[in-house]
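Give me structure tokens for this 82-residue protein.
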Amino acid sequence: MILSIKTTGLLGRFLPEGSGRNRGDVELPDDSSVQTLLDQLAIPEGRCLVTINGTLLQKEEFNTTLLSASDTVVLMAPLAAG
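Here you go.
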């Protein structure tokens, strides 16, 4: 399946080559999990928050939440305050 994703902050650097500004398409096997997506993009653990169709996922849900081509996926850089 081809999944369109959006990113925020510096996470755009993890998108496949040829992607536009913080938007890109990723090819994944059918029935891939959120964790499969993060692994394919080589995003280090704990470096992003994930929303699927506007719902924020907990880290514990990454392995069990399956994606479909119609999903709206946003990968967001966590905010840090100093």
